[in-house]
From TrEMBL:
Pfam families: PTR2
Organism name: Prunus mume
Keywords attached to this entry: Membrane, Transmembrane, Transmembrane helix
Record field: transmembrane: 86-110, 131-157, 177-196, 203-227, 358-380, 400-421, 485-510, 530-548
Protein's cellular compartments: Membrane
Chief place where the protein resides: membrane
Name of the featured protein: Protein NRT1/ PTR FAMILY 3.1
């Protein structure tokens, strides 16, 4: 009888929990090794192996990156509406695998790439057929990423049953573990795999990530019997549109005096409220009109384009409330993005010798960012949370909104410090008469850049994980893949804002004598510190905006039926505001 009840509630027999984590994290390690190892050095592959001009190669990767940033919305929609997270991840991984195999084969077989450059001849660029293989491989990669990115983190969190009081702390703990595993994998990829690609060969350099991807698929599928798989509950976007249309159709109706008079239907909402039913909130009352029943409405089988339940109306309210917090995360990514552009250019002009014979590659400076991020996560999880818990009484130590706020403050310090370091670098260039020599190494240690790289890593440990927690926790239960996709779209938007900001500064800071804050050829003659400080000012304004949004934010009120009470057939209801 109990099994039948569970089946009716779309939940399989008791599964999930910590036993599934080795499979999910092993998959994440291999998948990140594959994806990052595949993309970290791709600009070198396109220019040195396919002989693409630098601008064409950069635009190719930018277009691929833009497409890969949009496809998570498609993958999330298919996961939440039709396929479920397990099958979306599996199919998307196979698609990505096919793309990796085709590119690896083209790197191994000489006939699938142009001949090597001769010393006295112009390099032969890849022909149409060779480029077709490249574009097809990158497109498959973008489609695969669209299914993997939004679903993996949500699928891992799904393994912890929120209605089971014994597991309440493990869900938020999981996000720290997830980000730590992801960061460690990225660190391995940007050091070991990039070294193999540059020094051993592209066959091995692309072959190892391809093999890692294959292993990740096998490991992930082996764990299938242990996973807690939640059934897809229909298109979340359709439900949001239905509420909007219903509210518009009933816009002329007066609001009800008592929210208990609004339409409720537990049977209809059952598949989309397994973790608890959303309760009515006082905000955005015009949407409540979608839940006002009239004589024309069939209460047993309602037309959802005319009548919706309170739970469905609150789903739309939850998504709208998340919007301002989503937008606040964009500028942090914009600041973070400068590490791969201007900070990298700074590093190229500085003394990078660790010893007389060993020089740190400029691109490896990101190691300091990743190591700091990993150290901060370990400190946060093992030391900060137990200490904060004693002060606040919260299981997670502090709320994710406080965690994000700390990340914003640290990011402001990062760009502020970066401006002062750039001033010191230019003063050293001036003192040694190297201002007009952009390719000369200035006698100032590259380790002066460590504070800004480390502060950005620390900010990410606070802000990005807090952002991810926020989306998963505050999104409607049936839209959690979509919520994870929003996390990735914020990252995408941050990069686009960076491009826009750099273009505007470059355009409007241009002087009549060719001077510019962000010069094309000689950073020593620019005013990069001014750009960093403009970014700092924008982040201060953004922090004020975030504080206002956080103060006004209403956590979704959810009615949870305690598992122990449900099993003993007692009416045990708990009202929860998750933080």
């Amino acid at each position: 009888m109990e099994k039948m009840e569970e089946k009716g509630n779309h939940v399989a027999r008791k599964k999930g929990g910590l036993v599934t984590m080795p499979f999910i994290f092993a998959n994440e390690i291999c998948e990140k090794l594959a994806v990052v190892g595949f993309n970290a050095n791709m600009i070198s592959y396109l220019t040195t192996q396919l002989h693409m001009p630098l601008t064409k190669a950069a635009n190719t990767l930018t277009n691929f990156g833009g497409t890969a940033s949009l496809t998570p919305l498609l993958g999330a929609f298919l996961s939440d509406a039709y396929a479920g997270r397990f099958w979306t991840i599996t199919i998307a991984s196979i698609i990505y695998q096919i793309g990796m195999i085709s590119l690896t084969v083209s790197a191994v077989l000489p006939q699938l790439r142009p001949p090597p450059c001769q010393h006295n001849q112009v390099c032969t660029e890849a022909d149409g057929g060779q480029l077709a293989i490249l574009y097809a491989s990158l497109l498959l990669g973008a489609l695969g990423s669209g299914g993997i990115r939004p679903c993996v983190v949500a699928f891992g969190a799904d393994q912890f049953d929120e209605t089971d009081q014994k597991q309440t702390t493990k869900t938020w703990n999981y996000f720290n573990w997830y980000y730590f595993v992801m960061g460690a994998s990225i660190l391995l990829a940007v050091t070991v795999l990039v070294y193999i690609q540059d020094n051993i060969g592209w066959g091995w350099g692309l072959g190892i990530p391809t093999i890692a991807m294959f292993i990740s698929i096998i490991i992930f599928m082996v764990g299938y019997p242990l996973y807690r798989n939640l059934d897809p509950a229909g298109s979340p976007f359709t439900r949001l549109i239905q509420v909007s249309v219903a509210a518009y159709k009933k816009r002329k109706l007066p609001l009800v005096s008592d929210p208990r008079l609004l339409y409720q239907n537990d049977e209809l909402d059952g598949p989309i409220s397994l973790g608890g039913k959303l309760l009515h909130t006082k905000h955005m009352k015009f949407l409540d009109k979608a839940a006002i029943a009239t004589e024309e409405d069939n209460l047993k089988l309602p037309n959802l384009w005319r009548l919706n339940t309170v739970h469905r109306v609150e789903e739309l309210k939850s998504v709208i409330r998340m919007g301002p917090i989503w937008g606040s995360g964009i500028l942090l990514i914009t600041a973070y993005a400068q590490q791969n552009t201007f900070s990298l250019q700074q590093a190229k002009t500085m003394d990078r010798h660790l010893t007389k014979s060993f020089e740190i590659p400029a691109g490896s400076m990101s190691v300091f960012n990743i190591v700091t991020m990993l150290s901060t996560i370990a400190f946060y999880d093992r030391l900060f949370i137990p200490f904060a818990r004693k002060l606040t009484g919260l299981d997670r130590g502090i709320t994710f909104l406080h965690r994000m706020g700390i990340g914003f403050v640290i990011s402001i310090l990062a760009t502020l410090v970066a401006g002062f370091v750039e001033t010191k670098r230019k003063n050293a260039a001036f003192a040694h008469g190297l201002v007009d020599q952009p390719h000369s190494i200035i006698p100032i240690s590259v380790f002066w850049l460590i504070p800004q790289y480390s502060l950005h890593g620390m900010a990410e440990a606070f802000m990005s994980i807090g952002h991810l927690e926020f989306f998963y926790d505050q999104a409607p239960e049936s839209m959690r893949s979509t919520a994870a996709a929003l996390f990735w779209t914020a990252i995408s938007a941050g990069n686009y804002v960076s491009t826009l900001l750099v273009s505007l500064v470059h355009k409007f800071s241009a002087g009549p004598n060719g001077s510019n804050w962000l010069p094309d050829n000689n950073l020593n003659k620019g005013k990069l510190e001014y750009f960093y400080w403009v970014l700092t000012l924008l982040q201060v304004i953004n922090l004020i905006y975030y504080i206002v949004c956080a103060k006004m934010y209403t956590f979704k009120p959810i009615q949870v039926i305690k598992k122990e009470a449900a099993e003993s057939e007692e009416k045990g209801v708990e009202l929860v505001n998750r933080v």
